[in-house]
Amino acid sequence: MPITDISGVREVALEAHADARGSMTELYRQEWLADWARPAVQSNLSRSRAGVLRGLHFHQRQSDYWCLLEGSAFVALADLRAGSGTFREVRTTELDADALSLGISIPPGVAHGFCALTDVSLLYQVDAYFTGEDEQGVAWDDPELAIAWPIVRPILSERDRANPSLADALRDLPQR
Q1: Rounded distance, CA 40 to CA 29, Å?
Q2: Rounded CA separation 172/101 (Å)
Q3: What amino acid positions are annotated as catalytic residues?
Q4: Which class for 95: exposed (0-12), middle (13-18), buried (19 or more C-beta within 10 A)?
Q5: 122 versus 25: which is more confidently predicted?
Q6: Largest pairwise CA distance in the chain
Q7: In sequence order, what DSSP letters do the residues of 148-170 get, joined into one string?
Q8: How confident is the model over 31-81, as pLDDT tens digits?
Q9: Do residues 102 and 72 lie in contact, with contact meaning Cβ atoms separated by under 8 Å?
């Protein structure tokens, strides 16, 4: 099932304009994400070696827009929004920068992570300045999520290694 089966997740088709010199691709236009609560205010570049797994991370107020610039990555999304029609559903996809044909819009409350299948560069934009206060995590290997990661022993940050179980992460969320 496609990642867009998760409520509010959108794929944005990117179009390369090529000629004998090379190509040009628009990676982001605010109008593509007009339904975001706010326009993007910060761009970030994440570079990861093959075998690195980042996530799962989620935010209560911040939306993300991802575009893979180099390499290949396995992406996982999990809806952690109580009341959502896709609550607790997980979707995965593979991105390959050689195609550079897709941007992904991830709404608040949807946990996201990726495993670098090769060395990767991921450009991501957010609609709130990063302070760390809004970022939360859930264990990448939580059995309840049952994500079929393509790697058994990923390279993880200390923070991602310490992410709580899904049950604990959901219990700690503020009630709306």
Answers
A1: 10
A2: 37
A3: 57, 124
A4: buried
A5: 122
A6: 56
A7: --S-SS-B--HHHHTPPPHHHHH
A8: 888 777 688 899 999 999 999 999 999 999 999 999 999 999 999 999 999
A9: no
